[in-house]
């Protein structure tokens, strides 16, 4: 459903994301976890086009949305940013499931994934 391929994003001359590739199958919930400063927020902002990627490709349901403006991408994603202890897990899942444009709650099944 969502595919990010070979994404590179810079802040000025500093490369923040280098050749990032991720595939999110339809119906899945993904959690990005990692230390401060490793690019989690930068990746999400790039997918939402709040930041422009210098190279790479973002596709949604087979359509290349890399150059779509952010207002055309907004109907496809939910972002629940929270630090440790900010929100109970149920509140975050509720916000994801009942987003402003969701017609009905989504079924969430969280599965931990370890980075290689």
Characterise this structure.
- The protein contains three helices and four strands.
- With 116 residues, the chain is of the alpha+beta class.
- A four-stranded antiparallel sheet has the order 2-1-3-4, with helices on one face.
- The longest helix is centred in the C-terminal third of the chain and has 9 residues, at 89-97.
- The chain starts with a strand and ends in a 19-residue tail after the last helix.
How is the topology of this model organized?
Blueprint: E1 2-11, E2 14-24, H1 40-47, E3 55-60, E4 63-64, H2 70-73, H3 89-97
Antiparallel strand pairs: 1-2, 1-3, 3-4
Overview features:
single chain, 116 residues, alpha+beta, four-stranded antiparallel beta sheet, 3 helices, disordered C terminus
Helix/strand order, N-terminal first: EEHEEHH
| Number of H/I helices | 3
Q: What would you call the shape?
A: globular
Strand order in the sheet with the most strands: 2-1-3-4
Which assembly state applies to the chains in this document?
single chain
User: What's the total number of strands?
Assistant: 4
Q: What radius of gyration results from the CA coordinates?
A: 15 Å
Q: Uncertain regions: pLDDT < 50 for 5+ in a row?
A: 102-116
Residues in helices, as a percent range: 10-25%
Structural class comes to: alpha+beta
Give the averaged pLDDT, no decimals: 76
Largest sheet: 4 strands, antiparallel
Span of the ends, CA to CA: 23 Å
> What percentage of the residues does DSSP assign to strands (E)?
25-35%
């Amino acid at each position: 459903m969502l595919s990010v391929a070979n994404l590179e994003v810079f802040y000025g001359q500093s490369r923040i994301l280098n050749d990032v590739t991720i595939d999110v199958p339809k119906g899945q919930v993904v959690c990005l976890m990692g230390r401060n400063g490793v690019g989690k927020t930068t990746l999400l902002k790039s997918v939402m086009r709040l930041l422009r990627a210098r190279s790479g490709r973002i596709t949604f349901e087979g359509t290349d949305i890399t150059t779509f403006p952010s207002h055309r991408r907004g109907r496809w994603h939910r972002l629940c940013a929270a630090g440790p202890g900010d929100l109970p897990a149920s509140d975050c899942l509720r916000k994801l499931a009942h987003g402003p444009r969701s017609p009905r709650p989504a079924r969430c099944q969280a599965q931990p994934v370890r980075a290689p």
